[in-house]
């Protein structure tokens, strides 16, 4: 008798463990460009008040005009975005995790650097100075720079961690 009860409890536990795993899909919601953060915050409030099963809401800086939602189905997306300001609609289809992952992972700075680009030195004795990239050594993870604020031509070699890209126009 005890053995049968134990087996029944084990079966119930396995069934409850299966129900914990969630099946979710990523959907892109089209928004007014520049209003992604506002839409994201409104979606968060709506998800909490209506108790919607929205697992995550992401606004990517390199994906202007879109907010990505992780939900179990399309009906949840329509319920969440209904009547919200700055929402222009839902993009057709779903997103794959692989596509999102490529947008989420930052690219290493050394891969983005090119010769002739202007950078700012953020560490070391030349901290705060502007410089121009002369060469990039990906193997050693170093960059040769020509310091622009020096009174004579000064070329230095620093680790990539010591620099950041100057703001592009």
Automatic annotation (TrEMBL):
This is Transcription elongation factor Spt5. The keyword Transport does not apply. Stimulates transcription elongation. Keywords: Elongation factor, Protein biosynthesis, Transcription, Transcription regulation. It comes from Ignisphaera cupida. It comes from the Archaea. One of its GO terms (molecular function) is translation elongation factor activity. Residues 23-107 form the NusG-like N-terminal domain. Heterodimer composed of Spt4 and Spt5. Interacts with RNA polymerase (RNAP). Residues 112-139 form the KOW domain.
